[in-house]
Amino acid sequence: MLESIALIIFVSLLLASIARIVKVPPLIFMMITGILLGPYVFDVMDDKILAVSSELREIALIVILLRAGLTLDIEDLKNVGRPAFLLSFLPALLEIGLLALLGHLLFGLPYISAFLLATMVSAVSPAVIVPSMIALIEKKKGTRKQIPQMILASASIDDVVVIVLFSSMLLLAEGISPVLPMAIGVPLAVILGAIFGLLVGKILVLFFQMFHMRDTVKVLLLFGVAFTMMYVQDVLEPRIFVSGLIAIMVLGMTIQKEYQVLSLRLRGKFSKLWVGAEIMLFVLVGALLDIHVLADVGLLAILFVFLGVLARMFGAFLSTSRSSLHIRERLFVMVSYTPKATVQAAIGGIPLALGFAYGQEMLAIAVLSIFLTAPIGAMLIDHLSKKVLD
């Protein structure tokens, strides 16, 4: 196992350095590393790593959510208002609706399976968006109109909406009716998650103010609390969905609001942790991909993902109408809502693991959506931010 981890690190860093030379986002080369080392090409990755890959990917997601929360100022979000609210759900719902129809028409999936595939593919990627928006906030690019803050927060809620819908569709596909209707379950998950994160955040702030300890110990404590939040989500999920993802981000936001000096120091710690977490996340995503199945789904899958992205961009365009953003800034928001990676990596293999029909095809399309949208979206975010943001 250790030799596999060493190989992952060496190959990823080598290819990432090449990516920077040719000005391509390093994450695409990290996914290529996973494909090459994974079971479907050279098969040199230890099975023990693959067995815990979902847990490792979840840890990487927790790193970026804590980092996002420690960066966000809630006052900035209050100033954004309506566009941030609409961006939280409208682009996702438009994309899911179109993809569900296309899943039935293009691949012949039953409607429940088509909706399940649509929710798998539709979520945007915190792994791409969060680091990009944090970098813009730190450079003060677009912050006068709170554009990166709006995208960062809304995209995180977007993911929660999609994950709740995916969980509900998964239950329906298994022949189980969700306890709560989706119209109630989605907002309730966000609200309960925010309350959970706020309460725990305030307790932690008081604890850190009363007891002095090294920042490294505080980081470890935050990880322990975040893992516990995800555990609480899993325990409660059969009865009610409380979003651990929102709770973790609100936890960070509470520390940022109540204890700004500490949040600044912790932000630096999590920025360093992200270097390693990014490698493990995207390498393990690549290792999931069976390139033979990807060849089978072919051009129809590319069309499927492309049309879904267009629907999502149209939703972002509608969400920012009647706002203070000019057309170029609205274009930046639309482009920022296209990358997919983290959620697809986390949930793409679930239908296959549960033995669903078309599970392998669903996984292939989910991973294809990462390859098609993550590098292009990351490059466009970087390019447009220099052109259109103040």
Structural class, please? mainly alpha
Which bin fits the share of residues in helices?
over 70%
Largest beta-sheet details = none
> What is the succession of H and E elements?
HHHHHHHHHHHHHHHHHHH
What attributes characterize this protein structure?
390 residues; Na+/H+ antiporter like fold; 81% helix
Q: Layout of SSEs?
A:
Elements: H1 2-21, H2 26-37, H3 47-51, H4 53-71, H5 74-80, H6 82-87, H7 90-107, H8 111-122, H9 126-139, H10 147-173, H11 182-210, H12 215-236, H13 244-258, H14 260-288, H15 291-319, H16 327-336, H17 342-347, H18 350-353, H19 359-388
Helix pairs in contact: 1-2, 2-14, 4-9, 4-12, 4-13, 4-14, 7-8, 7-15, 8-10, 9-10, 9-19, 10-11, 11-13, 12-13, 12-14, 13-14, 15-16, 15-19, 16-19
Summarize the structure.
This protein has 390 residues and is an all-alpha fold.
Describe the structure.
With 390 residues, this protein is an all-alpha fold. The chain has one domain: Na+/H+ antiporter like fold (Up-down Bundle), CATH 1.20.1530. It has 19 helices and no strands. Helix 8 packs antiparallel against helix 10. The longest helix is centred in the C-terminal third of the chain and has 30 residues. The model has no long low-confidence stretch (mean pLDDT 86).
